[in-house]
Design brief:
Strand content: over 45%
Radius of gyration: 33 Å
Number of domains: 4
Helix content: under 10%
Number of helices: 4
């Protein structure tokens, strides 16, 4: 009995010790707080992209408000802290907060930012996030954001407050998409975002600048109009802006899978030369040098099946003397995809069962050549000429087969669906900008001309039939040709735009603007559909599914505007 009592006493002490430790750790865990809040303007409109800094006595954390103006901090160790909030065009907000320790979720009342009534001076944040904020630029010092050695610029961008990168490499800054990227203030591969961020190494970067860009016209005249685009400018460290650098990877795996990527660059003052290439059959996304459009995203999703993808590109830039700058890029991409699908099902009815099987295969191929050239000629301090020609040629084709087998008592049917198409799409254009600045400050004349032509020629064959059999005797019962057609499409589009603008200053902040704009678009569409006669095998024109039309649309516009441009606002009457 004595030993049993002693053992019970020891067990009681052990249980009390364990209970004490659990209570201790539970109390410690409860010291973590979650802080949530919203940032708005004085009218209650959410302010996306606001930089929010939470400071405690021991630490400092930074986040950025989302598209709804909301911010969130997790695992905060104390209920006493200070919030600092910054956003271009608004006064800086700073305020200390202290809450009771019993709270686990701290909800900050909506924080209202007041619009700044003066031009923003540079604000340097040197303690945690070295960010410089100016009128239309947010600059990040790359050295403050650590990434692994050999990481691409994209990994560096992911760490910048106010910027987000999605799974396809598209970048958003302060809630708006980055539409173009530049290196040392100059376009790189036509401004394609992913080509630069996924191939340039992060360790050569000095600064990254998010800029509100109003276009070439505004840069020449200093007069801004319309909504700006967000662009990202990467400045290279001076000691790394001369020389060669590059990187490459190669990999192989089971089932004959492979992947490889290489980049080589030469930077020397105004000269930039870059060669990029990649190949894989792993269904990985590849850069495609802006094939989806100008800037704003060059990533390509390969979809289902097995895709073999190849891409290569060349970018060149240099100055010819002090007045002429030439830069351009050529890119090639090719993708072949093979998708095989099978499915089977059983349908049960009251007195019988029906079995269906579906076997399909889709083969697709596409290739694309793109050439862009940009020539700038600074004639003198008053005259500027810029010529931008571009050419592209793409081909794509597909072959699709689908066999549907349906079996039920005494009857079996086989449906055969087949389609094949091939298309070519050449296009080209040229943009010309001329600007003349008169001796009188603010007096300016500009001429902008844009000519584009695109075409697409496609031939398609579609064949569908159903064959019904007597399954008991394996004899044909019926053959129905559902569709057997040849379809040819030929589309031509030509677009011309010319705009001339004369600007006369009225005073230091207002201007009279006289403009003339001419626009013309020409569209030609031809569609020929032929039904194949099952008896003779000859084509017969189907007039109901064929058409041929041509139309053009032209406009002439004259404009007289009165424009006022202030540091904080501008408006136009006219």
């Amino acid at each position: 009995m004595g030993n049993q009592g002693l053992n019970l006493t020891r067990m009681s002490k052990l249980l009390l010790s364990i209970l004490f430790l659990l209570l201790f750790f539970t109390a410690s865990a409860q010291r973590n707080y979650q802080v949530q809040g919203a940032v708005q303007d004085t009218a209650g409109v959410p302010l996306a992209g606001s930089i929010v800094i939470l400071k405690t006595a021991q630490d400092s954390l930074t986040t950025v408000t989302d598209n709804n103006g909301l911010f969130n901090f997790n695992a905060i160790k104390t209920a006493s802290f200070r919030l600092q909030i910054r956003l271009i065009g608004f006064d800086e907000y700073t305020k200390p907060y202290q809450f009771g320790s019993a709270l686990k979720l701290i909800k900050i009342p909506a924080i209202k930012l007041k619009e700044s009534l003066r031009q923003l001076k540079a604000v340097n944040i040197v303690d945690v996030n070295p960010i410089t904020i100016k009128e239309d630029t947010v600059e990040y010092k790359a050295a403050a954001y650590k990434v692994r050695e050999g990481s691409p610029v994209e990994d560096l961008v992911k760490k910048l407050p106010g910027l987000t990168v999605d799974k396809d490499g598209n970048i958003t800054a302060q809630g708006k998409p980055i539409t173009k990227i530049r290196i040392n203030g100059k376009d790189y591969f036509g401004g394609d975002v992913q080509t630069a961020t996924q191939n340039l190494p992060a360790d050569i970067v000095e600064n990254l600048q998010v800029i509100d860009d109003y276009g070439d016209q505004a840069n020449l005249t200093g007069i801004r109009s319309g909504e700006p685009n967000k662009i990202l400018n990467i400045t290279i460290q001076k000691n790394k802006n001369k020389g060669y650098f590059g990187q490459g990877t190669i990999a192989a795996g089971t089932q004959d899978r492979f992947a490889g990527r290489i980049s080589a660059n030469k930077f020397k003052d105004a000269e930039q030369v870059s060669v990029l290439g990649s190949v894989n059959n792993t269904n990985s996304n590849l850069f495609n040098f802006g094939a989806n459009g100008s800037g704003g995203g060059g990533s390509s999703n390969t979809g289902n099946g097995i895709t073999t993808a190849t891409s290569a590109g060349l970018n060149y830039r240099n100055s010819i003397g002090k007045k002429i700058t030439v830069y351009g890029s050529y890119s090639y991409s090719k993708r072949n995809n093979n998708t095989i699908s099978t499915s089977s099902e059983q349908r049960s009815f009251q007195d019988y069962a029906q079995y269906n099987t579906d076997e399909g295969q889709d083969l697709t191929h596409n290739s694309n050549h793109r050439f862009n050239l940009n020539m700038e000629y600074k004639v003198d301090t008053s005259n500027y000429l810029k010529v931008i020609p571009n050419l592209s040629f793409s081909t794509n084709g597909s072959t699709s087969t689908d066999l549907i087998n349906s079996t039920k008592p005494k009857v079996a049917s086989l449906q055969n669906n087949f389609s094949q198409s091939d298309a070519t799409s050449p296009s080209g254009g040229v943009n010309v900008l001329y600007n003349h600045k008169f001796k009188k400050r603010g007096r300016n004349f500009s001429l902008n001309a844009d000519l584009d032509h695109s075409s697409r020629n496609q031939f398609r064959n579609v064949y569908n039939n159903t064959n019904t059999l007597d399954s008991t005797r394996n004899l044909p019962m019926d053959l129905v040709q559902l569709q057997n057609q040849n379809i040819e499409n030929d589309n031509q589009n030509t677009r011309t735009n010319i705009r001339a603008t004369y600007m006369e200053p009225v005073n230091k902040v207002s201007f009279a603007e006289l403009s003339y704009a001419y626009s013309n678009s020409l569209t030609q569409t031809l569609r020929n559909t032929d039904d194949i006669n099952p008896a003779t095998g000859l084509p017969v024109r189907n007039s109901y599914l064929s058409n041929n039309y041509k139309y053009s649309f032209a406009t002439n516009r004259f404009g007289l505007n009165y424009r006022v441009i202030q540091k904080k606002y501008n408006y136009t009457v006219g």
